[in-house]
Structure prediction request, 186 residues.
Amino acid sequence: MTLPTDNAHRVASRGWPFRPSVFFLVLIVGIGSCGGPAADDRTSAPSGAVPAGIEACTPTDQGRYVYRPARLQTLAQCIRVIGTVMGSSTEADGDIHINVRLDDAYRGVLTPGNEFEDGDLIVEPVCQVAPPQADAIRICASDPAPLERVPRVGDHVWLEGRYVLDLQHHAWAELHPLYRWDVAGP
Prediction:
């Protein structure tokens, strides 16, 4: 009895016809779909993502301390908005979740997903409290300079942060992380 020595026979013996031209075509198409401009890139912005009239700003190092950043699609590295703080709560990852009712001139940064937050922009200064969530502890422990203070409910403020969509929460718009803020003028 002679044993086959080529791979074509082994593949064919399993019921799959081995055709090198088809194999290489599938391989090339598969490799081509894994990268390049057509690939899903959560860090790139769709064109026109930042509405006209929204001021850009300079990011700080706080972006390094965002918990699970892959869930966020970055639309702009840093924008400035103005609004009134409507509410806040702490999150298990150490962030503070702040709801900001934007002034009319800035409402264009909102998405339909923000309706799940009463039409407010979500702003998240990172690592503001010791996180009870185990996998966030290391990230916050490595943040040498979290924001020293955060806005309070009722404050009318300007805020600068990374403009993102939270893909795990209705793709609502956020500033995450918050880079800096202060009380807005009249």
User: Anything to note?
Assistant: Strands lie at 55-56, 72-90, 96-102, 121-123, 156-166, 172-183. The CA atoms of residues 28 and 108 lie 42 Å apart. The chain has two domains: 1-39, 55-183. The two ends are 94 Å apart (CA to CA).
